[in-house]
């Protein structure tokens, strides 16, 4: 993936395309192809301190000045508070994304090539330079250092940073932070005590967030070259790593090749999605986890379980999937799985009605792919039984099975489903009562548990779950079906139906066990396809509804007010395509249609968060990508559905016993 000077060298165009590096720990580096930082989340080293805690910005960027025959070229690209721009991006002639982000600058007949990569498994970023010149020149490189949460900005240029200089190396400490070591393979580091004032982040300004920041400059490297050369510098929380930069580079390139090989296909979209998915897979304290999205999300239970089949199972990472299921089994509390696990070590939050049900679906997918009944029986099955029991008799947040067998949930001021936008005390889409996808998940959990209990030999549980599943199967259509619309209500609360057309009903078609007649399935698919389908996912509300919001922009109140009120979500393309193929009985024409549905995402890989899939898109043309540029379940569901529905490489479960819930 390469971009020329018409894009990389153009401020407006280049600033809209972002690159991202990760290290398998949840740490990251990121910016734009124009070299400018447009978000407070952009930086060269953003990591959790070795002692623990949330991710922090330690190094914002490094800025180069090249002098040749008395003329100095400034390569910095920044926007300042007054709107003034340092436009070093005009010297960019190419940006190359793979195998690692590479900036190519041309200055007269001299080329400066700047490559970036992170060391997997540690908080280290390496910058490798190649200077191609046939005459003497000198180079200065200024590091911009900080120490603050990646969710905030540093608006005070008076922190007492300490520093220690050793030839080509500088160690920088903030009052309570770790030591950041910056070292180059050549030149000399010269001390200065200065600040870069009022760096402006346009994306944050547009979002109504804090957008001005000051960075500490401890000094600069000065280097002299007779006719070019190669060198590198490192920014690390683990001491100097720069001497091994070539070995570290080769190791990272080989690791990336292994990632691509996991999908065992030459299809370009699959290979790109495998590389994209790898960024979300992290290992902390020896256990695998899934980051919900970069740059601002942490681990979310719901997102993890929805992403697990696409990121870990279709790629053959069965051991990592096993670790995820085992880890979350330990987090279970009153039958609930965590909604959110903070990266700062805080207590998990459990305000979710669907995470536990998605966990059961993830267990089923794991069993379908691996047949690992021993692990499920000994470590997971008791947790699954506790979840079912808790939902039956009632648990936190008003989650309980009603007399008709359906799940109802809701507590004032608390958002419980995936449509979870909340501003202050305003829950935008509360969905209290019986939500359609929750009960589709509940039925599928009961059906699966009936089969699983039968295989394990737990006959009492098998009988109970089978009876409950039959009750839900009977009540679901009569409770949710809207005769005048020929689709499913979104929520039923105290007998009143919310009949606004939303995408949540698609799960009644896409989940493994069916709840509707063939005619009803076709009618639901028709309604969703006509009014909610877009090239980049499903709208969260039909355009003809009074609360419909066509775009996601403005301040936080405006954005969250549109989050689930018309905004299209990419991850929903997965269940939609699965439902489409199933309703059309997996015919050859339906496979072609599925291929066409996924094609726009291949082109999207060249936009916004490069080589990844965004979280959301505007509901109307041109469906501008918004929200998180790198979203785990967007990538995961696209990869899963491509492999299962287009390549038709579905698992062939060997564990299922000859059990019918009606017997």
TrEMBL record:
One GO MF term: 4-alpha-glucanotransferase activity
Domain Glycogen debranching enzyme C-terminal: start-end pairs: 276-640
Short name of any one Pfam family annotated for the protein: GDE_C
InterPro entries in alphabetical order: 6-hairpin_glycosidase_sf, 6hp_glycosidase-like_sf, AGL/Gdb1, GDE_C, Glycogen_debranch_arc, Glycogen_debranch_N
Cross-referenced SUPFAM superfamilies: Six-hairpin glycosidases
Domain Glycogen debranching enzyme bacterial and archaeal type N-terminal span(s) in chain numbering: 17-230
GO biological process, one term: glycogen catabolic process
NCBIfam families: gde_arch
The protein's name: Glycogen debranching enzyme
Taxonomic source organism: Dethiobacter alkaliphilus AHT 1
Organism taxonomic ancestry: Bacteria, Bacillati, Bacillota, Dethiobacteria, Dethiobacterales
């Amino acid at each position: 993936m390469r971009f020329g000077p018409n894009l990389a060298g153009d401020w407006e165009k280049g600033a809209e395309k972002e690159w991202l590096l990760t290290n398998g720990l949840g740490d990251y580096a990121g910016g734009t192809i124009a070299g400018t930082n447009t978000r407070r989340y952009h930086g060269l080293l953003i990591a959790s301190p070795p002692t623990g805690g949330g991710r922090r910005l330690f190094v914002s960027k490094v800025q180069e000045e090249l002098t040749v025959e008395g003329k100095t070229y400034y390569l910095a690209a920044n926007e300042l508070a007054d709107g003034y721009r340092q436009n070093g991006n005009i010297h960019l002639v190419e940006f190359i994304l793979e195998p690692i982000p590479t900036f190519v600058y041309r200055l007269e007949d001299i080329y400066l090539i700047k490559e970036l990569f992170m060391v997997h498994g540690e908080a280290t970023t390496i910058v490798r330079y190649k200077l191609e010149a046939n005459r003497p020149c000198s180079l200065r490189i200024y590091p911009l250092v900080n120490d603050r949460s990646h969710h905030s900005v540093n608006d005070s240029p008076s922190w007492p940073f300490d520093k220690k200089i050793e030839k080509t190396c500088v160690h920088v400490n903030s009052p309570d932070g770790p030591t950041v070591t910056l070292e180059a393979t050549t030149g000399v580091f010269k001390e200065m005590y200065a600040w870069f004032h009022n760096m402006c982040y346009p994306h944050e300004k547009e979002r109504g967030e804090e957008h001005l920041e000051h960075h500490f400059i401890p000094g600069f490297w000065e280097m002299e070259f007779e006719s070019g050369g190669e060198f590198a510098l490192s920014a690390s929380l683990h001491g100097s790593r720069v001497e091994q930069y070539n070995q570290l580079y080769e190791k990272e390139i080989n690791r990336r090749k292994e990632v691509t090989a996991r999908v065992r296909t030459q299809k370009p979209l699959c290979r790109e999605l495998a590389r994209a998915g790898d960024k979300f897979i992290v290992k902390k304290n020896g256990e695998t986890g899934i980051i919900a999205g970069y740059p601002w999300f942490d681990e979310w239970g719901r997102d993890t379980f929805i992403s697990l089949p696409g990121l870990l199972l279709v790629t053959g990472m069965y051991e990592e999937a096993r670790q995820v299921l085992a880890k979350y089994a330990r987090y279970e509390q009153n039958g609930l799985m965590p909604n959110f696990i903070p990266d700062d070590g805080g207590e998990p939050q459990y305000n979710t009605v669907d995470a536990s049900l998605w966990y059961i679906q993830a267990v089923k997918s794991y069993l379908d792919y691996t047949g690992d009944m021993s692990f499920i029986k000994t470590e997971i099955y008791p947790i699954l039984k506790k979840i079912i029991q808790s939902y039956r008799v009632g648990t936190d947040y008003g989650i309980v099975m009603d007399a008709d067998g359906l799940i109802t949930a809701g507590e004032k001021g608390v958002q419980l489903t995936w449509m979870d936008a909340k501003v202050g005390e305003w829950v935008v889409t509360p969905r209290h009562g019986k939500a359609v996808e929750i009960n589709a998940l509940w039925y599928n959990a009961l059906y699966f548990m009936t089969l699983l209990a039968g295989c394990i030999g737990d006959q009492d549980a098998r009988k109970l779950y089978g009876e409950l599943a039959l009750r839900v199967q009977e009540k679901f259509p009569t409770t949710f079906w809207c005769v005048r619309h020929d689709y499913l209500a979104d929520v039923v609360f105290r007998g009143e139906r919310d009949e606004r057309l939303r995408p949540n009903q698609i799960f009644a078609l896409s989940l493994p066990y069916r709840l509707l007649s063939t005619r009803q399935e076709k009618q639901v698919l028709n309604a969703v396809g006509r009014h909610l389908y877009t090239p980049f996912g499903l709208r969260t509300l039909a355009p003809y509804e009074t609360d419909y919001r066509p775009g996601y922009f403005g301040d936080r109140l405006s954005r969250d007010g549109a989050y689930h009120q018309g905004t299209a979500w990419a991850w929903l393309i997965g269940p939609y395509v699965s439902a489409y193929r199933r309703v059309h009985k997996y015919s050859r024409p339906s496979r072609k249609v599925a291929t066409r549905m996924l094609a726009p995402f291949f082109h999207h890989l060249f936009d916004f968060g490069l080589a990844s899939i965004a979280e959301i898109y505007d509901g109307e043309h041109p469906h501008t990508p918004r929200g998180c540029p790198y979203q785990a379940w967007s990538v995961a569901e696209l990869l899963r559905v491509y492999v299962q529905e287009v390549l038709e490489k579905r698992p062939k479960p060997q564990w299922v016993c000859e059990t019918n819930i009606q017997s």
